Amino acid sequence: MKTGVFICHCGLNIGRVVNIPELVEYTKKLDGVDFVKDIQYACSDSGQEEIIQAIKDEKLERVVIAACSPKMHEVTFRRAVHQAGLNPYLVEIANIREQCSWVHGDKPKSATDKAKDLVRMAVAKAKHLKPLHRIKREITKKVLVIGGGVAGIEAALDLADSGTQVYLVEKKPTIGGHMARFNEVFPNNDCSICILAPKMSCALTHKNIEVFTNAEVIEVDGQVGNFRVRILRHPRYVDEDLCKGCIDDCSSVCPVEVSSEFDYTIGPRKAIYLPFPQSAPLVAAIDREHCIGCRLCEEACQPDAIKFDQPPEEIEIEVGAIIVATGWKPFDARRKEEYGYGRHENVITTYELERILSASGPTFGQLVRPSDLRTPSKIAFIQCVGSRDEKTNPYCSRVCCMVSLKNAQIIKERYPEADVTIFYIDIRAFGRGYEEYYKRTQEMGVRFIRGRVAEIRENDDSSLTLIYEDTLNSEINEENFDMVVLSGGLEPAEDSKKISNILNIPLGEDGFFDVIHPKMRPVETGVEGIFVVGTATGPKDIQDSLAQAGLAVAKILKLFMRDQVELEPYSAVVMEDLCTGCRICHDVCRASNIRMENRKAIVNEVACKGCGVCASACPAGAIEMKNFTDEQILAQIDALTEERNTSPLILGFLCYWCAYGAADLAGNMKISYEPNLRAIRVLCTGRVDPEFVIHAFKRGVDGVLVAGCRPGECHYQFGNYFAEHRMNLLKDMLKEMGINPARLRTLWLSSGEGTKFAEEVNDFVRELRSMGPLGNEIAVSKGVVDGD
Amino acid sequence: MEINREVDLEGKNFIYTQKTDESVRELKFNYERCNGCAICVYACPVRAIELGPIKEIATGLDAPPIILDHIKCTYCGICAALCPFKCFEFKENGENVEFPISLTKHARIIENKCTGCKLCEEVCPTGAIKREIAIKREDFPEKNEGLIGEVKIDDEKCNLCGICADFCPAFILIEKEVSPDSIMPFEQLLFDRSQCDYCKLCEEVCPEKAISVEGRRIKGELPDKFAKVWIELDECSHCDYCRVICPYDAVENSKTGEGRIVLFEERLDRCDPVGCAACIKICKNNRVWYVSRESGKIAYNKDFCVYCGACKYACPQDLIDVQKDRLFTKELPSIPQPWRESWEKAIERAVSEEMAPVSLRVVKTERRVSPVTVENQEEINFPDPDILESLSKKFDMVLENLNKPGVRLLIEKQKGNALKKLLEDPNARGKNKK
User: Fold this and answer.
1) Which whole-number Å values give the CA distances from B112 to A209, A731, A759, B227, B254, in the listed order?
2) Cβ separation of A364 and B394 shorter than 8 Å?
3) What is the pLDDT of residue A517?
4) Residues of B in contact with A258 (CB under 8 A)
5) Does residue A243 sit within a domain?
6) Chain B residue with minimal CA distance to A297?
7) Domain range spanning residue A418?
């Protein structure tokens, strides 16, 4: 089987740390490698062409690409391999950028050693890759979605999965909307970006979705089934295909620093910037408002992605239906002058607090107040700022109560000593489980005072004095706080009026879009074929927004008549001859996609999402997880342990949705950590068969890290729980054998926790270092070696 | 990418340079020419320029009117593009840069109207008018010997343009101080009979035919034009003196801005124009201010003002306000590049005299992941082979147990005896169980 390895320099992004000539020479000597080539930019058109040509010329059958994260370009390379005449699933990626060069910049030698290990593991897996086939279905109809927030993305994805072509138009340089910037979201306190980022990248790479960022709709005519739409794409002055998303090179030389609207102005950014580390597309943009034309970024950018002469572009499309998901904008708290926002340093808005609490925000999740960057110990929340207020907005913004309850909980969880007070008029906790959530917040020790705050005064030490009426006790009080959070309401998005004119759909008096009937036809507008979803029709929470998105999709599909879809082939499949009919897989599949027939298990491959919980419970090894088979993973472990390039040597099993994302994020944020980890990607930690872990220890690794989503956030719902109890058992087993159970570490984190990931790896390295190589503890206890 | 920024002083020029591997940008600032009008201070998008002690400078201190922070400076060139007095020279890799937007720079002598007279040159406050006299009396070798004649100057016709005096030493102009309220640089033309040989050339040289001579025309041709006159734009402040004084409408000039001067008349008693004269001194490039003969107080002639605003900052009593309505600019025709908007805003700020905005507050902390080790200090340790082998045997037993449905079932059901079964020796008890 002829295997080719392509090693990408990514300009200097990989090349400046990893010694690529050395890596190439090393790879050439690897068993079973027939062809090795290094490429400046593998993802560029010319890079892809080189790969395609080499596959054809060398008659390659398996391809390994050592480059950036598969989250970035796996789809690109699958396409390229397919163009060369191979099955698209015969390519394996070694992530030597996000999980190597970008995080080990201070240790080029170790990074090169790690890259060698990662390539060797990928080659080993590649040998076992099998051709896979997506289930193909025809597509004909098209939909325009205006607004790339969570509602727009959800609608776009649902439509795209049904086979409908979608154009997603977003005004900002990234999709994701407000949700992408929030820290955690109620009622289950999920990490916001972690549940959204997969959808963002899916929207971006989905073959049925064309995303136009930095773009706006300027003209629409025609009627249902046949709208002609003109889109104006503003230049971002950065070539989307050439930019590698490294951002440091250009933005570090940019002399213009402004406050970032993506941090709700509390954090800084440059005139050339990425809105946030998880931006999709992961491409820099130049801000027309602030760039002053020093041209330093142009010099600094290695792939020459900066294009100052990029003209605006007009695009004409035809669609059958339109979804308006233009969302909302935060109330400008300066309008409530008595609260001093903009004058008093330590008065911030609830949106700024979201960024401060976010692990990828300007403070990396550390709660600090602006005046001295210290953690405040006494914090007040003021509710209904710009809501239920005759002077600003008479309506209730619905979500702010829950948002403040949530933030109060998070602060109490992270800083149990903090004194948190919420000033409210009424607490409106209206959804399922919300009242309980309110109660829980009270029980956590958060103080609630009923009454509107009349005024905030700033003291000499930057603390704040609140003057308020406690309406339950009929008292007028004054009290000091370190920081005040204004719970600002939701207002109609800036361009609502413009969109209303272009689409000829009316706005209500409050500025939000009107629908035909608020109860019976909540997403339909006066124009047939145009739907409005999410906060564009008024304040609502994420779940209501998504429900509306789904409803609009259903209405559109009803209009189009359902066509066809295409699915990733990552399902489980039972190898009949090996199946012993023990039913364990049937029992562990919580999605009930496995049935028993004639004492053999059968997987419903269309419904199976591929978590792998069944395969890692099967005693007979009879279940094959496509693209993540036992033999592939065991081959990776064997390949890793063939050599030993680092000490302690850690093998990681990273769930693709959370832990792998967190590791990539650490890369995007260029956080250096110890280079001892070698990761194997799995779709879910539920895929981690105890056999894999035992096999790894048997082969002499010093530690195993199993990292997945936080409890309750598993993308397959229960996979991480399976992993946890299996790993706990294995820890007990290690202990029984005299091995320190801490050599097996589990880590549950969100894809937004890049810093935490790095810290955990460092901590694990520190711990393993103190234990010595595997088995050292046995030697010590037997007195073979002196313990030091 | 490495960026080096340096500053150097060469005479009255500050030279700021930014070097990278690929480019050198040089900003030269001539502080002698600068009057501290603060247009650049407001226009600078990164607040790299501050106004110096302008009141003191106006009353005699020798210091640069503006201070530029060469580290903050982005070398964008906005200051150079908008300076009305051309105090900056901006070069990229040694070449002049064409700015996307810059202040208009239009003034010229209309050649076919110009007689080559001396007036504009005399009144120009910056010395931007250059003049080359084509011929003088002394260039003619012939001389009337012993001839007695008569010279008459028609005062009605004579406009004191000064050509005759430049041409022949027999004419003497009596100069007077140019003042904004009386811009004529000469008050009288005198004739020195002892220098005259009645050659009659002056008759032809005078564009106004104001001189008549009884005598004998010596031989020789006079050129069509007495002198060549032009404006050096890099020195011109577009004050308009030349255009106003020219008797032949031979000057075109566009001012760089328009607006209003407001003098706080009610408080003028505080003004000491003779002792202080800050406004007069600071307005060296335009010469707008003077001491009124009637009131003895300060006064201005707005005809010569470009509304730069320097006097406003110079007056120690704050008696002057200059309100800019607009600056006149020209734009480079091209696809709008990403910085067009920032440049337009810089001009707006220069007009409204607002500083570039700064972020209200920026909250940012350092990430805190500390490395455990330093590269190359770690050695690679291998597990003890004997221990690994004994462990390996145990692991193989466990792996074998994992192939048993019964053990797997205990694991998945989280039964308490799962561990025991997992560690059991499969050869000892496994067989009979199956």
Assistant:
1) 68, 101, 81, 12, 20
2) no
3) 80
4) 359
5) no
6) B1
7) 346-490
* Same domain flag for A352 and A483: yes
B138 CB contacts (<8 Å, ≥6 apart)?
Answer: none
What angle (nearest 5°) sits at the alpha carbon of residue A176, between those of residues A172 and A181?
Answer: 100
CB contact under 8 A, B45 and A290: yes
Nearest Cβ partner of B395 from A619, A621, A698? A698
Residues A212 and A64 in one domain: no
Residues of B in contact with A765 (CB under 8 A): 372-373
3-state SS, residue A419: strand
Are A535 and A330 spatial neighbours (Cβ–Cβ below 8 Å)? no
Cα distance between residue A376 and residue A415, in whole Å: 10
Average pLDDT of chain B to the nearest whole number: 91
User: What pLDDT sits at residue A445?
Assistant: 96
Cβ pair B382:A700 closer than 8 A: yes
Q: Is pLDDT above 70 for A431?
A: yes
Q: What is the mean pLDDT of residues A30-45?
A: 94
Q: A142-151, A335-344, A532-541, B375-384 — which is least confidently predicted?
A: B375-384
**Quick one: pLDDT band at residue A714, thresholds 50, 70, 90?**
confident
Other CB atoms within 10 A of residue A227 CB: 22
All residues of chain A having their beta carbon less than 8 Å from the beta carbon of residue B425 are: none
Are residues B382 and A772, on separate chains, in Cβ contact within 8 Å? Answer: no
Question: Under an 8 A CB cutoff, do B100 and A293 touch?
Answer: yes
Q: Is the pLDDT of residue A565 over 50?
A: no
- Peptide bond connecting A648 to the previous residue in cis, omega within 30 degrees of 0: yes
The mean pLDDT value for A607-627 works out to 93
Could you tell me if residue A382 is inside a domain? yes
CB contact under 8 A, A299 and B76: no
- Choose, out of A252, A295, A348, the residue to mutate when testing the contact with B (most B CBs < 10 Å): A295
Q: Residues A751-763: what's their mean pLDDT?
A: 91
CA distance A554 to chain B (A): 39
Is the Cβ pair B388, A775 closer than 8 Å? yes
| Fold of the CATH domain B107-233+239-245 | Alpha-Beta Plaits (3.30.70)
**In the prediction, which pLDDT does A34 show?**
96
Q: Is residue A240 part of a domain?
A: no
- A527 and A539 within one domain: yes
* pLDDT (tens digit per residue) in A637-647: 999 999 999 99
Assembly ipTM? 0.71
**Chain B residue with Cα closest to A764:** B372
Rounded to whole angstroms, the Cα distance separating B196 from B148 reads: 9
**Helices marked H in A94-191:** 108-127, 150-161
Closest residue in B to A347 (Cα) is B361
Tell me whether residue A778 is in a domain. no
Q: What is the pLDDT of residues B372-390, one digit of tens each?
A: 778 776 688 899 999 999 9
Q: Are residues A590 and A652 in the same domain?
A: no
Rounded CA-CA distance A345/B420 in Å is: 62
Q: CB neighbours of A473 closer than 8 A, spacing ≥ 6?
A: none
**Could B402 and A758 be called an inter-chain contact, meaning their C-beta atoms sit closer than 8 Å?**
no
Is there a single domain that holds both residue A591 and residue A704?
A: no
A252 Cβ neighbours under 8 A, 6+ residues apart: A300
* Same-domain check for residues A72 and A41: yes
- pLDDT tens digits along B278-312: 999 999 999 999 998 888 889 999 999 999 999 99
Q: Do residues A162 and A293 both lie within one domain?
A: no
pLDDT in tens, B62-119: 899 999 998 899 999 999 999 999 999 999 999 998 899 999 999 999 999 999 999 9
Question: CB under 8 Å to A516, separation ≥6 — which residues?
Answer: A524, A525, A526
Residue spans per domain, chain B: 4-106+254-352, 107-233+239-245, 393-433
Q: How many domains is chain A built from?
A: 6
Both A368 and A444 in a single domain? Answer: yes
